[in-house]
Amino acid sequence: MNITVRQGSLTEAGCDALIVNLFEGVKAPGGATGAIDNALNGAIAAQIADEDFEGKLGECMLVRPVANFPARQVVVVGLGKLEDFGVIEIMKAAAAAIRKCKQIKARNVATIVHGAGIAGLPAFDCGRATALGSILGDYEFTKFKTENVKKSEIESLEIVELESGKIADIQRAIETARVVGDAITFTRDLVNEPSNIVTPTYLADIAKSIAQECAMKCSIKDREEFQQEGMGLYAAVARGASAEPKFIEIKYEHPDAKKTIALVGKGITFDTGGYSLKNTDSMYRMKDDMSGAAAVLATMRAVGEIKPKVNVLMLIAATENAIGPNAIHPGDVVKSLSGKTVEINNTDAEGRLTLGDAVAYANRAKVDEIIDLATLTGACVTALGTEISGIIGNNQRLIDTLISKGRSTGELLWQLPLHTDYKDGLKSDIADLKNTESGGAGAIRGALFIHAFVEGTPWVHIDLSSTLTEKDAPLAKQGAVGTGAGTLVEYLLGYAETAE
């Protein structure tokens, strides 16, 4: 879908579908919607009364224009209540409107900038949210369907703005939305793929391709190499896998960079739980256990385009967590890259083991910040549900920044406390640490295990609760949501715009 902006009047927009909006409870359209209503001889107001259209967020109403009107159909989308309105509501309204346009098989669509001039929202923010919501609403994954595929393609979306002074801001907003949207949809594609395709080798090949296209350095370590390096935690998890594990590293370097950020993604391409075997219901969809890896790979694609003035080190300790002749047992003790020993009392708490070694590797590289993303705990889903991810760390500035950046892309993050008193529960009788403790606070304890390998570096852990949706959601069809990539890209865009 090609997105452009044009200065002009909506009443002159020739297209298959024209999108306007309405706040909840408004019966007499005003502003741009009012101008379209006047051009349609009051058809919108009349249909609102006839159909009892309320303007609830994402609610859509089709209005067939009068003769000689340049748009074939008009889509009125609800913005919800004015007092609840913000950039996320803009995104949800834009996504709903695009889906309605796909439903009516529109190919060329024009839209108002939702929210412009309302509640003090800048044109850039509204334009970005309108474009990004449209991109996410347009997404579908139908790669493996061979029958009854009814996929309607929208070829173009034209954002029409009357005020010429806002055009430059909206153009910048569209470009930002494109970069962020590409990262999120790339993440969705990877997570939606089945685990018989997305193996550690597959992720490694994608990393090599990204590095080659973007002139970055890429290093892939096989089992023997990362074992020799001392990554005992990661190697222990990989022992049961028949698919060959790969330690994946991409380096982006900028000549004017003053610091280096490490992005670490959990890359368990399928998780059986090992000998601490998951039940059938829990194991289904465990292909999504590489969602963190997908997000950091997508981010590196964006980095190659936006070229931020900061060095970026991406790390993925990719493997399956499976049962095989060499698989680890509950009670085994292994040595980490940092030198700490760990008693593995639960083989289904494998992600934190791989992340512990990857974080220690980042520390050896003397990075200035570490951000890790992982589908780490079911406890985080229990606490926050499937629409909010947990965030925890040792640097409040970094936490606050990522929460803000996430919100601008529709990715909600909620801070959990780094309550170090809980570390006592991770002490082992026979080793330095054990990888789990029963008794609640699982998301915090999982983060505390990773924190044991951070060694004082500014660090944030994002526990990705919201990687999949079991039914269509406002910003995602059933399947992968792509959480994490938008937050990271928005964060790194700040370095593309400044010389920090």
What would CATH call the homologous superfamily of the largest domain? Zn peptidases
Task: Give helix % range.
Answer: 25-40%
The structural domain count equals 2
Put simply, the count of helices is 15
State the shape.
Answer: elongated
Q: At CATH's second level, what is the architecture of the largest domain?
A: 3-Layer(aba) Sandwich
The structural class is alpha/beta
In whole angstroms, the N-to-C terminal distance is 34 Å
Work out the number of β strands. Answer: 19
Q: Could you describe the largest sheet, including whether it forms a barrel?
A: 8 strands, mixed
- How large is the share of residues in beta strands? 15-25%
Residue stretches low in confidence (pLDDT < 50, at least 5 long) are none
Mean pLDDT: 95
Strand order of the largest sheet: 7-8-10-9-13-17-14-15
In the CATH scheme, the class of the largest domain would be Alpha Beta
Verbal overview:
With 500 residues, this protein is an alpha/beta fold. It folds into 2 domains: 2-161, Leucine Aminopeptidase, subunit E, domain 1 (3-Layer(aba) Sandwich), CATH 3.40.220.10; 186-497, Zn peptidases (Aminopeptidase). The protein has helices spanning 31-39, 43-51, 87-103, 123-138, 167-192, 200-213, 223-229, 232-238, 280-283, 291-306, 351-364, 378-384, 396-408, 442-451, 485-497; strands at 2-7, 15-22, 60-63, 71-78, 108-111, 156-161, 217-221, 246-252, 260-271, 311-321, 332-335, 341-344, 369-374, 388-393, 412-415, 433-434, 459-463, 468-469, 479-480. The protein is elongated.
